[in-house]
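pls design
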């Protein structure tokens, strides 16, 4: 018989500077979501410096979904997780609203929204 999987839903909020990031671990190992990633102009990358170390400490080496409450740097800046240590299926959930993206001259490639298959999650029916 295989190892028992944890039936607990675990949600951890991480302080990432401007706001919080949430790491959602689904019951039974069904998946991991990271919601928002913080971020602000400059060299500090909350994905690399805060979120990825937390995931590695929890032995999470794969994220199924990145979820973005709205497309502004202070929410997506930390979602570009270091690919050398954390894999990502490539799915991004967001609210479907166009956001403020800083001018390209102010943003390094790691500060651009993470490449992903986008799925809008608006409540409009």
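designed seq:
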């Amino acid at each position: 018989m295989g190892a028992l999987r944890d039936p607990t839903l675990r949600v951890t909020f991480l302080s990432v500077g401007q706001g919080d990031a949430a790491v959602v671990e689904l019951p039974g190992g069904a998946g991991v979501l990271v919601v928002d990633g913080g971020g602000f102009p400059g060299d500090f990358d909350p994905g690399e410096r805060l979120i990825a170390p937390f995931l590695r400490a929890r032995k999470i080496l794969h994220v199924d979904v990145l979820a973005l409450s709205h497309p502004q740097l202070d929410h997506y800046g930390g979602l570009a997780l270091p690919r050398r240590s954390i894999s990502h299926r490539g799915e991004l959930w967001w609210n479907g609203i166009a956001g403020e993206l800083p001018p390209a001259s102010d943003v390094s490639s790691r500060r651009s929204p993470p490449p992903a298959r986008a799925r809008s999650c608006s409540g409009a029916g």
